[in-house]
From TrEMBL:
GO terms for cellular component: cytosol. Gene3D superfamilies: NAD(P)-binding Rossmann-like Domain (3.40.50.720), UDP-galactose 4-epimerase, domain 1 (3.90.25.10). One of its GO terms (biological process) is galactose metabolic process. The keyword Isomerase applies. Belongs to the NAD(P)-dependent epimerase/dehydratase family. This is UDP-glucose 4-epimerase. The keyword Chloroplast does not apply. It is an enzyme of class 5 (isomerase). Its cofactor is NAD(+). Its EC number is 5.1.3.2. Pathway: Carbohydrate metabolism; galactose metabolism. Homodimer. It comes from Larkinella arboricola.
Length: 344
């Protein structure tokens, strides 16, 4: 089955392309490199020992989408392409609403026009805000007041749900990711944050690589065992495999209309300091970090209840936090190795 992967040159998209090929699917990538790098395509070619069909383009451009749907005889779509920086979305809400909502609406319209009925949507645990009860289940209410980025995920979920409920021939799954970390074990693809990383793990690996002076832990006065925030860190390869499993679940649906939501996490929470200690142990190095003030908007603790994705979708995380941190460090080291050989 030919699957359009929007944002397929990105962090989670590129890892999902690998798992799609491994599972016998044929991925077709569209990416405009607004938050990814062309080098990911070379990494994919080396891992897969083949080229992957690629279109450089924007999911907000009807002509680009029509040309791809016309030519590629698609069986489904995985929609990753979106702006995803929480802080930036607060500063530029209209850019986020325009890009993230319009691309999803245009994709749904184009899918309907070409009779493509399987959609996996990249959503996020950020839709829960700070949940009252932990672990969060899919029935946990989504909180309206979060970042514009988080709101775009909530609204896109509703747009997809309402389209399915309108009777359109659409089968869709929204995957609510927790915190993706790590990299492909080959070290050939991984996270490539533009500029200064806002996420914890790339900031850690860049600090360990000497690109950053130190990691600042944003607050240690939270109501947690060591005072630092708790998150559910999921290996990006596990997360990629969840998308393959979601496609299989969609394909198995006899109904022409289907919509469901799954939390995709490990079900385990770790504090920031536990993650730093694990990074130091597994990579046998000392990390320079300091405790600083809280970051506004941070959720104190969140981790997933994963019974539904385990039992209904038949997917479960296999990699540990240590695996993710080992792979993230290998990727960071390879990045500099590549640069040094290129610069000579
Ligand atoms: C994790 C923890 C920080 C950096 C966001 C989005 C989510 C998804 C992942 C897109 C927090 C702490 C971080 C640092 C720190 N994005 N931290 N020092 O905020 O949980 O989730 O990114 O899909 O939707 O909401 O991830 O990695 O930024 O932070 O102490 O330099 O690390 O306070 O507790 P977050 P994060």
């Amino acid at each position: 089955m030919r699957i359009l992967v929007t944002g397929g040159a990105g962090f989670i998209g590129s890892h999902t392309v690998v798992e799609l090929v491994n599972a016998g699917f044929e991925p077709i990538i569209i990416d405009n490199f607004s938050n990814s790098d062309r080098s990911a395509l070379e990494g994919l070619r080396q891992i897969l020992n083949r080229d992957v069909t690629f279109y450089e383009g924007d999911c907000n451009d009807p002509e680009t989408l029509n040309a791809i749907f016309e030519k590629e005889n698609l069986g489904g779509v995985i929609h990753f392409a979106a702006h995803k920086a929480v802080g930036e979305s607060v500063a530029k809400p209209l850019m986020y609403y325009r890009n993230n909502l319009d691309s999803t609406i245009l994709l749904l319209e184009t899918m309907q026009r070409y009779g493509v009925s399987n959609l996996v949507f990249s959503s996020s645990c950020t839709v829960y805000g700070q949940p009252e009860q932990l672990p969060v289940t899919e029935a946990t209410p989504r909180l309206p007041a979060q970042s514009p980025y988080g709101n775009t995920k909530t609204i896109c979920e509703d747009i997809i749900r309402d389209t399915v409920h309108s009777g359109a021939a659409l089968k869709a799954i929204a995957l609510r990711y927790f915190n993706p970390i790590g990299a492909h074990p080959s070290g050939l693809i991984g996270e490539l944050p533009l500029g200064v990383p806002s996420n914890l793990v790339p900031f850690i690996t860049q600090t360990a690589a000497g690109l950053r002076e130190k990691v600042t832990v944003f607050g240690n006065d939270y109501d947690t065992p060591d005072g630092t925030c708790i998150r559910d860190y999921i290996h990006v390869v596990d997360l990629a495999k969840a998308h393959v499993q979601a496609l299989r679940l969609l394909d198995s649906q006899s109904e022409s209309s289907y919509y469901d939501i799954f939390n995709v996490g490990t079900g385990q929470g770790n504090t920031v300091l536990e993650l730093i200690k694990t990074f130091e142990e597994v990579n046998q190095l000392k990390l320079n970090y300091t405790i600083g003030p809280r970051r506004p908007g941070d959720v104190e603790k969140i981790y997933a209840q994963v019974d539904k994705v385990n039992n209904v979708m038949g997917w479960r995380a296999e990699q540990t936090l240590a695996d993710g941190l080992r792979d993230a460090w290998r990727w960071e080291q390879n990045l500099h190795l590549k640069k040094s050989t290129v610069t000579g």
